[in-house]
Every structure is written in structure tokens, then in C-alpha cells.
């Protein structure tokens, strides 16, 4: 069963993208190879879409899969380990959970960071348009905007603006993280 918030996000995205193309629901259903009833339910937020259905719709619309499921960041976005929203497959023990979509033309650097408690690592603002993604691997750390850092634990994901002052403050020995610095 798909999370109600995710179903609503998918509903709004499918309808928005379909209307952007100027297509009727019947036309999109035909192009995607899904039933019009299934598409109507999905657009009403009542459907329970599978990965296969969403891939078919995104392919027909000529958009990345992520456009249908990504909430997009309005500010710092925190994803706690175990709280991701899974989209199940139809016939296999498989699900997809989107953490962050790569916008077209984005540039990214990926870092493995190791830190110990003590002095926090404070970063001056990077180039305008920089966004940082952090997945904490081991330990714990306060991470994010200097005035609004969030305590992360293994598996937690956080995204925040890297073009504003930010901090990485290890709270336990052997802390490590993967940081992706993206310039949009």
C-alpha cells in the first residue's frame, strides 16, 4: 500500500504533466499502455501505483521517474532511516525509494567524510546554487545550516543549501558520512 502523501504527490504530478502535454487521460493511458480506469484512479489519488505503472507513465510523458515521486526541496529536507516511502513492484519482491533526483545539467561532487568529536567543521557558503546531500554512515553528527543543524544517525539523509553557512559536528567517535555537493 502506497503512503497517502506519496499517492497525492503522484496524483498531482501525473495530472500536471499530462495537462502540460495537452493530452486527455485516454491519450496518456494509450501512450503508457495502462488502463484509463487505472490512470483515472491514480490522478484522483485513489490508486495504488506500482513501479512498472510509474515507469510507463514517465516514459510516455518523456520525464524522469523522479518527477512523479520527488517532493522537491523547499528548505532543508530530512529523510530518517526507515522512513522512506517505498513504491512496490507488481510481481517481485522489489521496491524503489527516491531520496533525491538529479536535475538536468547538474554538477555533483561526492565525498566520504570521516570526523571525530571535538571542533565542528564549519563551511563558508559555496558557489550560489550549491545544494549538499548527506547520508550519515556511522556515528552521529549535527549537520546542516549553521542555525538549524539536525542530529543525524546512521542511514539518515539530509539535504540543505550549501550556498549558506553550514556545519558538520561529529557527536560520536568514528563518525562517517557520504556528502554529495551539487551545483544546480
UniProtKB/TrEMBL annotation:
Q: Where are the transmembrane segments?
A: none
PROSITE patterns found in the cross-reference section: HTH_CROC1
Domain HTH cro/C1-type: residue ranges = 14-68
What the entry lists under SUPFAM superfamilies is as follows: lambda repressor-like DNA-binding domains, RmlC-like cupins
Keywords assigned by UniProt, alphabetized: DNA-binding
Q: What is this protein called?
A: Helix-turn-helix transcriptional regulator
Protein species of origin: Arthrobacter pullicola
Identify the taxonomic lineage of the organism of origin.
Bacteria, Bacillati, Actinomycetota, Actinomycetes, Micrococcales
